[in-house]
What we know:
Elements: H1 14-35, H2 41-55, H3 61-91, H4 99-109, E1 115-119, H5 123-131, E2 138-142, H6 149-158, H7 164-173, H8 178-185, H9 198-210, H10 213-223, E3 229-232, E4 239-244, E5 249-251, H11 253-259, E6 263-269, H12 277-285, E7 288-291, H13 296-304, H14 307-315, E8 319-323, H15 338-349, E9 356-360, H16 366-374, H17 384-389, E10 393-397, H18 410-425, H19 433-450
Parallel strand pairs: 1-2, 1-7, 2-3, 7-8, 8-9, 9-10
Antiparallel strand pairs: 4-5, 4-6
Helix pairs in contact: 1-3, 5-7, 5-18, 9-10, 12-14, 18-19
Amino acid sequence: MRLLRWLYPGLRIKRWLFLFAVATACLAFGVAFTFSPGTAPAIAAAITHALRAKSGADLPRWALAAGFIALGVAVAVVSLRGAVLSVVEVLAPSAAEGLGEALFWRRQTGRGPRIVAIGGGTGLPVLLRGLKTYTGNTTAIVTVGDDGGSSGRLRGELGILPPGDIRNCLLALADTEPLMEEVFGHRFRRGSLAGHTVGNLILGGLSEVTGDFVQAIEAASRVLAVRGRVLPSTVEDVTLVADMEDGSVVRGETAIAAAGRRVRRLRLDPEAPKALAHAVQAITDADVVVIGPGSLYTSILPNLLLPEILTALRRSRALRVFVVNVMTQPGETDGYTASDHLAALQAHIGRPGVDVVLVHSARLSEERLAPYREKGSEPVAPDLDRCAALGVHLLARDVASPEGLVRHDSDRLAAVILEEALERLGRPDAGHLVDYYYLQERLRQGRRTRV
């Protein structure tokens, strides 16, 4: 009975099914005329007679067979394309145009390089938006030390991990309708829900329904059609603790960011929380591990203080890239150069820790910099020699957005990282040569688009 539903009126499918039946008949006749000359003699004689009357020449039987086969193939292609588009126009209207190319690149990104991005805050989602264009094998490992705003309230009231940074990463990797992304990111402005975002509340609700925060993230990933995975670095309740250069001790991510004093050493309470096993495995299997961008002390380092993640990073054979922020962060990295960022990272994870430091190098206009300088923020200087002395290669590139807020440009940042990875990792084995070629082609297309 379910098959009969395809014949219901209004589906715009029956016409294509009829055409496909015609195509099947043509192919059957063509094959029959080729291998069984005595098949359907009346049909063959009628067609031959009609052609003789039209052209005055006899048509060889092999030509008649070839004509039927060619006609059958052509009609079959037209009917199948029409049927597929009829379905796609209903289920995914935005994908109907350019369907073939969209399917190809979706399949190809599913075979892209395995990339792990470690961080949190507002910096990590910028990178993720760029990476999803080139690969569907991205894993975001996100800090869970946030204790402010909506995340802090839900953390205290529901006893769940702070969902804010995770929500932002899910939205960055999402491949869903813009309205759904807007809804997940919407922040209430009135009433008892003021300050909460819809996505945070949904993650909190899913966590109660599933009984597990990681399963809640997986459920939200399916709703948002996320390309890749988003994982918390740990599922334990951790608090960030900073020993300041003036000898004071500050507890909590929000308090550390607001302290306005330089951090000497960062630690977690409890000191050695257990890392999420899937996060550790993702680093072990990665082709590229990207650390940052994001707040050095409150978004990046909290993930690397987990012993199992740090061990996996040190042992990883992947290309390890540290992305430095475009601007210094008041209260955390005042006056820091690229090498100062690297030195602080190495002070917590050891040397060399990473293989490449990526820093923005192009000049920024005074008009764009003025609002940041009023707050004590300056462009991070790319001091190549000092980075080399610390045992790491400095990669200075134009990776900032060309206008608006001074931050990384998603596509430029992802493209530079992947180009560096292709150059350093070399040609892959024979089984991945085609994927290697198509990734290069996609990067070339991106460069032409930016120019």
